[in-house]
Amino acid sequence: MNVNFVRNLRIMGKKAKKSEVDVVLIGAGIMSATLGTLINELSPDIQIEIIERLDLVAAESSDAWNNAGTGHSALCELNYTPEQPDGTVKIAKAIDIAEQFEISKQFWTYLVENDILKKPEEFIRQVPHMSAVFGEKDVKFLRTRYEAMSKETLFKDMVYTEDKSVLKEWIPLMMDQRDEQEQIAATRMDIGTDVNFGSLTRDLIQHLQTKDNIKLSLNQEVRDIDREEDGKWEVEIKDVNNGEKRKIKAKFVFIGAGGRSLLLLEKSGIPEAKGYGGFPVGGQWLRCKNPEIIKQHHAKVYGKASVGAPPMSVPHLDTRYIDGEQALLFGPYAGFSTKFLKKGSYFDLPASIKLSNIRPMISAGLDNLDLTKYLITEVMKSPSDKLDALKQFMPTAKMEDWGIEVAGQRVQVIKKDPKHGGILEFGTEVVSAADGSIAALLGASPGASTSVAIMINLLKRCFPERAKSEQYRNKLREMIPSWGKKLNDDAALCEQVRQRSQEALKLS
């Protein structure tokens, strides 16, 4: 008789082991690592178990090769500052994102100062953030954007130029052999950062593992989530190696499983999840293989997205620091797959379609035919087509200096809309039960960069009684001095917290 068949029969015959904790965090990425660290600092008595289906921490969306690592602070990302029909530029979203990234930096600063994060240079480096545009129309847009943003405290150090001699100093690779008649403009902010969220996540979880009340379980796949009569949640888990099943009971469950969060949220059955769908978008980078070229570029230079392109496909020539080495990427090039994770299943998209979300998904699809057309075009691109896109940024680019690197998988949020039936959202959204006992993070950028602000707001929603205590609020202000204030409205405080982060995180 087949040995595996006998083993499976034995497993089926066994009763699932049961345990209980206060909090279950599903997914060992930057969101769970951040939430777990915040909970432990604010309420060190809470018992936590982190569940990860892979054998590594931060192996999906948080991995350095799977995300942009820009430290999204709206210093250079033009999709956060849309141009209006009258020619003005709307900057409210940029201000909001910049405020949230400063909260992340303050929290990381606290962790470094308290020896929780020991080597900040392994996860964050200072790299100038630049926007670059070509042609009269886009140059006018960038100039208008600069004039609006440079008046704000958070962006007061932004510099703008159309001077080609200055541009040759800032971005020599991009200016080499460029047509002297071509109109080009750029903005620059030197305080920009490159963040290796994979390294940061591993450091945070490594620290959490030193705590007696926190457990990390790898190779454990969540199969179901059910509400019990007592209001607690029962999470059913399967060991991907031996097939054994077990159940964990918890007062609070956070689903931070990247693209898979939607599928798990649907299993919870909460009414708040009804109507949500997901649209997966994959991607690739061109990765430079020539060390001589890599060392000539030191900036993150973002351009404008093509018409119909999703925001995460904004082209950028990107200096990265991964595993201690400087790297140079260009892209990303969008693609389509029905997988919700890089190491997911091709059945992810079909499995996510329910009666409650099929109408919003069809409506969003019909309203975004240009996106579908764009993705098909991207998938069909040959290596020479990809090189042509790079040459718009770097005229001297040669294919032999570059290779393909597969990026991570993103799932954009589709939600119900009274007017359109369904709309496609290009942001990050937290969906939680009315009583706050379960929550899931859906969507993509700028999630990782704004993770601290997102998770603090989640704690306020899901742990309201603790969040009201004076001890909780005092600890929060200790970790994040600007919490409850707007740095953009307080130039002195903004300068103070940025200087503190600059010193603690060794940003120079």
CATH architecture label name: 3-Layer(bba) Sandwich
Q: Low-confidence segments, ≥5 residues, pLDDT <50?
A: none
Quickly name the level 1 CATH class: Alpha Beta
Number of domains: 1
Cα(first) to Cα(last) distance is 66 Å
Q: Helices and strands: which structural class?
A: alpha+beta
Beta-strand content: 25-35%
Helix count, per DSSP?
17
Instruction: Count all strands and give the number.
Output: 20
- What coarse outline follows from CA principal-axis ratios? globular
CATH topology title: FAD/NAD(P)-binding domain
Question: What's the CATH superfamily, by name?
Answer: FAD/NAD(P)-binding domain
In which range does the helix fraction lie? 25-40%
Query: Sheet with the most strands?
Result: 10 strands, mixed
Q: Residue-averaged pLDDT, rounded?
A: 90
Radius of gyration in whole Å, from Cα? 23 Å
Pathway: Carbohydrate metabolism; tricarboxylic acid cycle; oxaloacetate from (S)-malate (quinone route): step 1/1
Transmembrane segments: 21-39
Keywords: FAD, Flavoprotein, Membrane, Oxidoreductase, Transmembrane, Transmembrane helix, Tricarboxylic acid cycle
Catalytic activity: (S)-malate + a quinone = a quinol + oxaloacetate
Write structural notes for this entry.
The chain has helices spanning 3-13, 30-42, 92-113, 136-149, 164-170, 172-175, 197-208, 261-268, 291-294, 348-352, 358-367, 369-379, 383-393, 451-462, 464-468, 470-479, 491-504, and strands spanning 17-26, 48-51, 124-126, 129-134, 159-161, 184-189, 193-195, 214-217, 220-227, 233-239, 245-255, 277-288, 300-302, 316-322, 325-335, 402-406, 410-417, 421-425, 428-432, 438-443. With 508 residues, it is of the alpha+beta class. Strands 4, 5, 6, 12, 13, 14, 15, 16, 17 and 18 form a 10-stranded mixed β-sheet that branches. The longest helix is centred in the N-terminal third of the chain and has 22 residues, at 92-113. The model has no long low-confidence stretch (mean pLDDT 90).
